[in-house]
Give the backbone structure.
Amino acid sequence: MLVVLKKDYEEVSREAARMVAGAVRAKPDIVLGLATGGTPLGLYKELVALHRADALDFSCVTSFNLDEYLGLAHAHPQSFHCFMEENFFSQVNLPRERAHIPDGTIRGDYDAYCERYEQSIKSAGGIDLQILGIGRNGHIGFNEPTSSLASRTRLKALSRETVEDNRHVFSSESEMPKCAITMGIGTILESRRVLLLASGRSKAAAVAKAIEGPITSSVSASALQMHPDVTFIIDEEAAYSLTQRDYYRHVLEMTQLFMPERLS
Ligand code: F6R
């Protein structure tokens, strides 16, 4: 596990964009796993800037988003479909037919739909690089506390904390979805490489539990400790509760020296 400590949100976004851009250049037909929310907004902005100024090419890229609210039409302004269109897809040349987002409008056989989502990830060759944010309760995707560490894409009831954190963007509380379709923790752990971004003091407790706490279904992100290639890119505020910051800096220096490819 690599922990990259940055000063603030802007630095986190730039560093994440540098790594994602490097991965896209190294493998133009890369399969990306994408996240929504406030955290990756800066990353998408940086990637759009690199696309415009440095011809970063997404024309052969395939993407799979982590999750979508259940019951929201694609055109709903708070849907993750809308978020991705507005903040990324409309501004880069990633072909829409290769951009996959769980469909929040499905009704009925959720298991069959989720199994098809899993199959399409497999058919694309699996996720090469998964971008993650983290919830205050340690969720990744919408894998709320007590999600099975082996879980796959499925319908998931949102926790009270997640509803509280997100309902301000909906015009009324009744409009806030109560469930989502989300990739599972098992799905995420199958990605070849994971980048988790976090910024701000509100994430400090969850980040510390994910990196330094025991592996537990009470903190979904702690499952990442079992993944062989995870990089946390976090700012000072999000790193506030970590006890081994000096060691992480030392590891980073040594990685730069001996295994720079892990940071490219
Ligand atoms: C979003 C997602 C969530 C968010 C998390 C943090 O696709 O899967 O796990 O990453 O809720 O959200 P923000 O970045 O808004 O704090």
